[in-house]
Structures are given as C-alpha cells and as structure tokens.
Amino acid sequence: MTVLVTGATGFIGLNLLHAMTDREAVAMVRPSASTARLPDGVETVESDLSDPDSLAAAMEGVDAVVHLAAAVYAQAEMERTNTGGTERLVDAAAEADVETFVFLSTVGAHPEVPTDTDSPYQRSKVAVEDLLFGQDHPFDVAALYPTYIFGPRDYRLTRYEHVRPIAANRVLVPPLYTYDEYNVVHVDDVVGSVVHCLDERATGRHLITGPNLTNRQVLGTIARHAPGNCRVVGVPYGVTRWVVKPTLDLLHRVGVSPVPGDGFLERGDFGTVREDLTERAPVRQRSWQSALTETIDWYESVGVL
Amino acid sequence: MTELAVGVVGAGWMATDYHVPAFTSHPRTRVVAFAERDDARRAAVEGDLSVPGYASAEAMLAAHELDVVSVCTPPSTHEGIFLDAVDAGCHVLCEKPLALTAESARRMAEAADAAGVVTQVGYLHRYYRNYERALEMLSNHLLGDIVEVTVAHHSAPPQQGWYYNPDLSGGGVARDLFPHSLDVLFEAFGEDADVTDASVRHLRGNAVEDTARVSLEIGGVPVNLSATWTQTDGVTRVLVVGTEGWLELDAETLQGEVHGRPVEFQHGDLPLVDVGVATLFPASDEDAHTARIHDFADHAAAGDTETAAPASRGVAVAEVVDAVYERTGAAWRADQ
Lengths: 305, 336
Description:
Chain A is an alpha/beta fold. Chain A is built from ten helices and 13 strands. In chain A, helix 1 crosses helix 7, helix 3 runs parallel beside helix 4 (120-126) and helix 8 crosses helix 10.
C-alpha cells in the first residue's frame, strides 16, 4: 500500500514517517521545503496544495492519503490552505484510485466538542467537516481530532514555551505563569491512530484525548524532568487575583514593570474536553507524562535545553 | 590503568598555563618531560614543574619513551617536531596553525595516517559550550536550510615577534585566527570549501597583514569571515541565518530564534532566573582549553584517531588560508 503523506515535514508528519520506514510512504513536499529532516531513503514528491495539477501528479500510484498539512500559525493562510487545500486534495484523490483518506483535524472541530469561534484555525478545520462527512466519496474517510500534542521532533519549538520557563528558573511561582488547563496527548498516539486507520480501514471520526490536567500537574511533571531542578510552588488563584495583579499594576504605574497585571488573570485552555470525552483514542495510548518527558528529552538532544 | 607519558614541546604560556596543567589533571596522562630552546626559560620551568627539560624536541624524544607529544612552539617548527613525534609512534596534539602551508600540513597528515597515531590540532572555539550547542542545533537542522553565515574574530595584536615574520608564522592574522572559525564551520557544513573572494590590509606596516576577510562557500553555504589584530581584548561573533531561524553567538552568549521562538544561553547554560524583565545566569567555570586538551587525551588513551580536529582538518583549514594569500598576492610568499 503506497501512502501519500502531506505535511510530511511538519511535527506529526516527521514522526509518522519515522514510524513508517518499513512501509511505502511518499512524502509530499512543497518545492521550497527542506527535506533534511526526513528519514533517510523516504521517497518524496513535489506538490503544492494550491496547485491542482501538481496534486493530480502526486496521486499517481497512491492507495491512501494521509492529509496532515495545515497552516497552524499563519492566520492569513488558514482558509486558503486548510480549507481550500483540503478541497483540492479530496478532488484529486477522487480522480485517482485512492482507497483511504485520513484527515488530521483538531479537537475543537469534533461535533461533540464546542468550537472556539475566535480561532481561525479551528474554523478552518470545521469548514471541511461537511466536505469530508456530508458527501459521498469513492474512498473511505477517517478523521482524527487530537487535543494538545507533545512529543519529539518538535522542530518549530511549538511547545518550548511550556518547558523553557521551568528550565530557566529555579523556583516557579506566579506571576511567572498564569492559570492554565491542559489535555495532553503523545504524538505517538496520533501516529498510531493514523496507522490504525490505514491498516484497519477504520472510518469516521476519532477523538484522541488524554485526561484533563491542571497547570500544577503539567508544570510539576515538566519540572521533575527538565534540567535545572526547578520547584513549582502553587499559588491559589485568589492570591494571584488580589495580590499579584494589583502589585503588578502598581509597579507598572510607577514605571518598573513594562506590563500591567491583567495578563496574570488570563486562564489558558490547551485542549481540555468534557469529562466523558477524556482518554479516547482508537489505539492504546502512551501516558501524558511520557509525552511531556519525551518532548523535553528531544529538546535536550537538539541543544535547546 | 597505565598513564600515557606526555612530552611538551615549547615552554611558553600556552604550555605552562594550559597544556601542562590539563595533562596533569587528566587521569590517563602525566607530563614527564618538556623541551624549550631558551636556556633561562627552560631552567625556570624545570624548577616549577620538577620534570626534566631538554634543549630540543629531538633530545627529549631520545631520552624518554613518550606516548604523547604536545606541540606549543611557533608554526615554522611544527612540521619537523610533528614528523619526529609521529616517527617515534607518539600521539600528537599540535597548536594551530598546524603548518605554514597546506602542502606542509598534508605531509603531516599523511605521516600520522600511515603511523595510525591520534592527532588533534589546537582549535579552541568549538569547545566553548555555546559553540557545542550551536553545532548541535545545526547538525539537527533546527534552523532549516542555512542561508548565510557571518563570522568576525578580532583580537589584540600578538606580543611575540615571530607572529610578524612570515617565515616563522606562515602569514598574518588570517593564518593565526581564521583556523578557529574554519574548524567550527567545517564541523557544521563539511570540509568542501571554495574561496570566492578575499582581501587583506596592512594597518601597521608589518610584513604580514593585520586584517583579513574571505568569502567562501562551505558545503554550499555562503560564509563571510573576517579577522583583525586590533586593540581589543578580543571579540568573536558568529551569526548563522537559516530558513527557519537564526543564531548569534560568542563564547559568553548564545541567542537566537527558531520559528520566532527565542532561545538564549550563557556559557551553554540556561538562566537560573528569567522573569522576562530580568534574567540571571549561573556563574560559569567554563574552561575550553582544558576541555580540548582533555578531549584529545581521552582519544589518545583510547587509541581513537577520530578526534574533533585531526591533522586532516588542519589540511582543509590551511588550504583556505593559502587560497586567501594566493588571491591577495601576499608579497612574502615569493620568498618561500
């Protein structure tokens, strides 16, 4: 089975291709993309989601498509790439003799999970739901909805902001961090789910969720594993609200702090889901702790920790 | 575990401040003899070290069964001492520049290869922890494809007269300072180098240049490298720009961005405290000279010829410096 992988040079793509070295995977890459990080010997095909002719050419001899490519941070490209690009790829797959189409979505685009309508990324993923599941296709369709993914090969350092403040401080107390909640999954769970959909011809929607976690659980686990022996000291929200914020506001007024205290009241949510939707995946999952520790190990191995 | 017997050639500051203490503190090596041509210097150092001093490397090699020879003399003497040491079956740590010319360096590398001894040229920069980190990030393609590298290395004019005599030094600031940077660049991008432009200037009327600049491609990466002997304590900056990030570093500070996410280290360490408005880094006991000499000693003790910078690296470095002098038509080369 020849599998065409879009987004091959991204975080999940690289992990998937490293897990599929004994299979016939073809990495679809943009002409400008660096292929230095791909596993040795992986076949590549140059193609662009904006160019239907190039997609038709890339589909030659392909049995399955794993569509990971998406603009995750560049807002201007989200509609064009994530929505329009997926439409063009689905069209090209329909023209070719593709049997399976696996799409990587995001948790907020799952029908049972409320969508953050302020997020252009989530909107761009919701926009293809009807295309994938509201229409007939000559191939099986599966879609994956992971929460907040951690793991090795995070070349864009997208999770570095959660780790560096801990590795770069001996004691971590507010106001160094705000109150956040997380739902963390291992990138191997996502990779394993993709492979599961290919091997088992599993169709339909699949959540990939871990347990909902508090700030303290996540930061504490990172602190135990990261270099630097950081201690995380929990501070109740009330203290942040009635002591830290007013203090920062005062320091800001007299010119000592460059920012006022408002930021410390923001509550971040990284992928949490309703309690009955936690710990779901089509495959046996890795622990959320291992997702964090293996991310840290990888950061150390490439020199950024 | 047997200790390797080390003989140090040349008893200047490089030998007494770095080589002798480092070989002494390494568990597998001990200094048993040294050679120094200057009688007064030899007598003084003999008293300090309590090991016998000899007037020449030859005499030292004849008097001792040495395992390791470290060469801390002016460049013009390197080839002769190196070949004698290799001939005696010794592993050799040789200070940079390895030789006066690439041709001379090639003879040394070939002799070392044939004898199967462990060699290393005394390049320093890659042993700074910031450089180790930068090399790690580059070898893991963290910056994407590298678009351009700029290196500036400026240092005080050397005190010793031999630096200004091309017959003894093999050239000026290019021969003296380029090697440290070229070693790092070759480590990052391979030894395939192609010089595209070069210029030198003589600011003080010396026979050798005191500023030098070279443009070259190393493994396809465009590099601009400049060095001067000017009144400064020494400043070295490396700027690496890739398609997905950048790094700027010297021995003290490493800063950069990967996909817009900042990275920052001092002496290879993360901060102790970083609260955004203020950053405090740990005190550093970094000692790159000891690190490089110990790394060589590790390889010598293991008989591992794959050192960080074997004599063959010295050949690749000398070829670039030779190319600089060829392009700029250095007048003193006609005499050689």
